[in-house]
Specification:
Layout lengths: L1 E3 H18 L3 E6 L4 E3 L2 H17 L6 E9 L6 E8 L6 H4 L11 H5 L7 H11 L3 E7 L3 E9 L4 H4 L1
Parallel strand pairs: 2-4
Antiparallel strand pairs: 1-3, 4-5, 5-7, 6-7
Helix pairs in contact: 1-2, 2-5
The protein binds adenosine-5'-triphosphate and magnesium ion (MG).
Length: 161
């Protein structure tokens, strides 16, 4: 069914606000509004909440986390990109290749303090793939990370009619 991306982002931000406030991390949005895709609202919220929780957890307090939404035109069907950027600790090139694996956590001793299982990103990856999309990661140690989910846009039915 049709999923309203604005509603997904608003709900994911609501579910992350408490954690963000605890860590004095600012949460903001930027980019296009009124986008929609076909798929599961609940799964997309789960994916976005996982990315937001990581962005908040693996940043210093007072960090800034931004959710960006945009339409990416493409000859083989437009895509919708939902990005989560932080200015946190970053991920080394070596670890970037592995973070989507189940149970993989960078620096076990440090990660243990945050009490996760290392499953979050593998779940995000599964959800994105189930929607026919892909996820990309840009990161630099000490600068921050951006995880971008690219999902096929729902065709504009009004234009077809
Ligand atoms: P879980 O999500 O299951 O609670 P987790 O956060 O450790 O546990 P993932 O979400 O899969 O598991 O992330 C894997 C690892 O990737 C994390 O342990 C962390 O080391 C690293 N990581 C993920 N997101 C970021 C980020 N935004 N900045 C820096 N490191 C990150
Ligand atoms: Mg996680």
């Amino acid at each position: 069914s049709m999923v309203d991306i604005d509603e997904v982002v608003a709900t994911a931000l609501d579910r992350s606000r408490h954690l963000a406030e605890q860590r004095s991390v600012s949460l903001t949005t930027s980019g296009a509004r009124g986008l929609s895709i076909r798929g599961s609202r609940d799964q997309l919220i789960t994916a976005l909440v996982n990315l937001l929780h990581n962005a908040i957890h693996y940043s210093d307090t007072k960090a800034r986390v931004v959710v960006t939404t945009r339409l990416v035109p493409s000859p083989d069907g437009d895509k919708i990109a939902i990005g989560v950027s932080d200015n946190g600790i970053g991920i080394s090139e070596e670890d970037q290749r592995r973070v989507f694996e189940r149970f993989y956590r960078v620096d076990f001793a440090r990660s243990r303090q945050t009490g996760g299982t290392g499953l979050g990103l593998s779940i995000v990856n599964e959800i994105v793939e189930a929607h026919g999309g892909s996820i990309t990661l840009w990161s630099r140690v000490g600068s921050g990370s951006t995880f971008t989910m690219e999902l096929p846009a729902a065709p504009d039915l009004e234009e077809d009619a």
